[in-house]
Amino acid sequence: MKNINLNIATSRSKFSFSIVDSVCFMFVLLCPAIICLSGCRKMIEIDMPINKYPVEKVFDEKNTAVAALSGVYAVIGSGEGSLMTGDVGLSLRSGFMADELSPLVMETVPEYQNVYNAKDGWPIWWMFVYRDYIYQLNTSIIGLENSTKLASVDKNILLGEAKFTRAWLYFNLVNFYGGVPIVLTNDFRINEKIARSPASEVYKQIEEDLKFAKLHLTENYLNRELLDDPQERVRPNKFAATALLARVYLYLGRWQEAEQEADQVISNSAYELLTDLNQVFLKNSKETIWALQPNVNSFSGVNTPDAKVLINRWGFLDPDWYLSSLLTSAFEMGDMRKTAWTQEKAAGYIAYKYKQGYGTSEQTEYTIVLRIAEQYLIRSEARAMQDKLLGDHSAVSDLNLIRARAGLSETSAKTRESILAAISKERQVELFLEWGDRWLNLKRTGNLNEVMTEVSKSKGVAWQPYKSLLPIPYDEFKWNPSLRGHQNPGYGEQP
C-alpha cells in the first residue's frame, strides 16, 4: 500500500508524520472514538475491525464517518485530556476569573486573580481546541464533502454536525480571545500562515456554519446509525443549531433574529422547563438541548468531569474551591435553585447541579452544553431590547417563567433598564458555572469592568481591563509568523 502523508497542524502547532497503511490512519483519525469506545458504546459503537477500512473509505461508509465525529464529542466531554470540561475546563476556570468561585488556596489558581499563564497554563487551551478538535472536524468536513459513496442525506447530516460543533468551538474562542485565525482546512502549509481575523469575520463563519447545520440536521435526535433515538440527546440536532444561533444573534445585538430563533426552540414540545430542579441535569432531561456524553468506565468512576472537581476529589475529599459569597448571596430568599443546585459544606457552598461526583459507576448525568432555560433568557432580553417589555409575549413574561420555576414571585421590574438588570441577575443564579456564561455576558453587556473592579478588591488585586481577554499562548508565535505582533493588548509574545 502506498505511503500516505498526513499533516496535522493548526495555525499554531504543527505535527507532520507519515502513515504507511490505513490502520495507522484510522488510529489517528478515530483514536478518540477507539479510546472512548467502552464508555460511549451506544453513541459510537463500531463492530468491524479497524483495519477493514482503508483511508479512502473512511468517509464513504456511514459507521466510520459517524465514529470520526463521535470521537470528537467524546474527547471534548471526557475530562481526560480535554480543555473544555473538568478541572481545566471553561466552566471552572471562567468561574474563578469572574465572581463565581473561590479557591481554598489562592496561589493554586492564578486565574482567580486574573493571572493568565500563556506558557503552560490554562490559556493554552487555544492550542488544544485547534489541534484536537477543529483539526478533526475540518478533516471530517473535507472527507465528507469529497465522499462519493456516502448517501447524500447521511453526508449532509454529518456535515451539519461537524459544522455545528466547529461553530460552537469558534464561539468560545472568539469570546475568550477576541479575533482568532479562521482555520477551515487540515493542510498545515496553509494553517501555519493564517493570521487573526477580526471578531466580526469569525462571527460570520460561525453564522454560516450554524445556518448550514440548521438546514441539514434533523429535528429528532439520532443514534450512531443516524436513526431516530428519542432516548439520547448527545448528537446535535436542528434545534441545537437553532439554540446556538439564538445566542450568537444575542451577542451580535440582532434582537429580532435572536427572539425568532429562541422562539423556535421554546415552541418545540420536546423541550420544557422542568418543575423539579433536581431533574434538570439528569441525562437526556427535557431541559437538555445538547449534551456531551462523558467517557465513564470502572477506572474513572466519573459521570461528568465538572462534578468530579466540584463535588469531591477521588470520591472522598472535599473540593479545593467553593462558590463565592458574591454568588451565594445573589440568590433571593426562597430561591429553590440555591437549595437544589448548591450544597453547604464546612468550608462553604459547593456547586451541586450535577450530583454524581467521583467514584460513581452508574451513568445518570451528561454534561449539558445547551438547555432550554437559556433560550427563555435570550428571548426575554431580545424582547426587552425591542421594547416588548410588559404583558403577554414580553420580556417580563419570559423572565417570570424562570422565576416561577425557582419558586419566586413575579419580578417588579417595569422599565427597560430594570428589566435588563433583572435578566442579568437571573442569568447569574440560573446559569452559574455553565460554560463561562457569567464572564461572557458581563463582557457582552459592557458590565465586566464595573463588576470586576469591585470583585478584584475582594481578591486582593486591582482589575485591569485588558484582562477581559486571554493571551494567545507563547508557542503560537513560534509556529505561526502571521501571529507575531498581534498578541492581545497587555501581554507579551514570549515568557
From TrEMBL:
The entry's keywords: Cell outer membrane, Membrane, Signal, Transmembrane, Transmembrane helix
Pfam families xref list? SusD-like_3 (PF14322), SusD_RagB (PF07980)
What stretches pass through the bilayer? 15-40
Query: Where is this protein primarily located?
Result: membrane
Q: What positions does the domain SusD-like N-terminal occupy?
A: 111-250
Does this entry carry the keyword Signal?
Answer: yes
**Annotated compartments:** Cell outer membrane
Q: Which GO terms describe its cellular component?
A: cell outer membrane
Q: Can the keyword Metal-binding be found in this entry's annotation?
A: no
Domain of life, per lineage: Bacteria
Q: Which residues form the RagB/SusD domain?
A: 344-491
* Family note: Belongs to the SusD family.
Quote the protein name from its UniProt record.
Answer: SusD-like starch-binding protein associating with outer membrane
Q: Which organism is it from?
A: Chitinophaga ginsengisoli
